[in-house]
Amino acid sequence: MPLSSLLQDSIYSLLPRVGDATNCIKDSNDVCLPNSQTNINNLLNQPILPSIQSRISYTDKMYYLAFIFVFGLIGIIASFMFYTKIFYVKNKTNPNKINDNMNTYANKSYTNSSPNDYRITQPIAPMTSHVRFNDVAGIRQAKDELLEIIDYLKNPKKYQDLGIHLPKGVLLSGPPGVGKTMIAKAVAGEAGVPFFYQSGSSFVEMYVGIGAQRVRDLFARARVSAPAIIFIDEIDAIGKMRGIDNHQEWESTLNELLTQMDGFEQQSGIIVIAATNQVENIDSALVRSGRFDRRIFVDLPDIKEREEILKVYLKGRKHNVNLAEIAKLCVGFSGADIMSLVNEAALYALRDKRDSITTDDIIAASDKIIFGTKKQIALSESQKKIIAIYNAGKAISQYWLLQDFEKISLITYSNAQNLTKIPECALKSEMITYIRVALSGNIALEIEGLESANISKQDLQEAKNIAMTMCKDYGMGVTITGTQDDVLDILTQAYNEHKSFLQLYKQYIPIIANELLDKERLDKDDIQRILLV
């Protein structure tokens, strides 16, 4: 098809654009053509440049509109962010507004990659402590050091007038169960101030910044409620020494805690109390002056303190118990252990349908706490005899060599604990004595003509551990470096020495064993009565 024909067809497609009113034909640029130019040839002679220019102009306009829309949207977002920042700064500098917005802010939800929503923090509300020092026994030393802090919280003006600055933080350390949390609650209860409790592990999460935000929220709440006490349990979860194994979230949480403790004044009325079982792992930055600069060690209760604790937990319960004797029985018990002891004893009385706790209930509960639950296994007569002879040999050895014998029992336990405690400063001969006692049960069986029994597993392991420690750590073997031959030599020496020793008392082994079979339990007085006849 000729080119002219194609152009004519294209022009004919424009004919519907003819304007009837003006009697003219309009091109795409709205240029009105006279009638004399309506033929096809004249149309072909018209320039098409205005039409192309019109289309370019329209496209540019659309680009301009899109440009204005995008940058306008960016401006709106930037204005919103700027307003939010100013609003946050104003709230931060005005503590009175923090309390109004804290619940809303604390409840903001953030969604992570998992399907579940992650809540950045839970609302932190103060507790009202009803615990008093009269409710906490066995803390005489800690109580004396905390009385002035209580007085400061009650009468801050008295200290401010004299220019006295009390420590911002108190670090309570000691074994588990000695009552560190109860002490903090008692301080808050005696002072009558709000008590903010948080566990150290609740601050650290896998998402960076969440722990630091929780620390800020905690201190913000305390400032609004001042005077107040902040108690952080297990602070070593966030306050342990910084090292190569610490992650970024832990680091930011610790830094925020340090910043917050530096940020409030000593006259703010806020006291931070923290507790830890591992004070040696606490970062040195936490315990420097101006932070946790008062440290109180809460030790296990002595015999008098154990008696006081027993009085507290037996208060309101019917009992027929000699507290002094039970306190002697509870050597090494913490306050929490004694609470469990009394509770277990009450359960024993309840099972027997009695309303009064007896000494036997306390003894049975003590055995359960120390050793675990009794094995409900029917022992044959031969098995009972083996256990009785084994324990008789150990009782004789402990009584004469260690003088720390308490009791032996015919009952086997599911979680027997190794209670041997070697002194901090012990000679080689003293450590060998502990090995001899650990081997004494099997030696007694051998003297009575019996084979070794598998009930000696823990004792043999203890003997090996002591011998290896002597050789490897203390250089008490033949060679200074300590070899397996050195360990074997010490074990063999201890075995031979103790076999000769126990031969001197072999007549007492069957006597003690038979009485143990009859009574199932013998204490130190029973063993002393037999051996000193």
Automatic annotation (TrEMBL):
Segments traversing the membrane: 62-83
Stretches of the chain forming a coiled coil according to its record: none
GO CC, any one term: plasma membrane
GO molecular function, one term: ATP binding
Ribosomal protein listed as a keyword: no
Domain AAA+ ATPase positions: 166-302
Named cofactor requirement(s): Zn(2+)
Pfam families for this protein: AAA, AAA_lid_3, Peptidase_M41
UniProt keyword terms in alphabetical order: ATP-binding, Hydrolase, Membrane, Metal-binding, Metalloprotease, Nucleotide-binding, Protease, Transmembrane, Transmembrane helix, Zinc
Gene Ontology biological process terms in this record: protein catabolic process; proteolysis
Family to which the UniProt record says this protein belongs: Belongs to the AAA ATPase family.
Name listed for the protein in its UniProt record: AAA family ATPase
Taxonomic source organism: Helicobacter muridarum
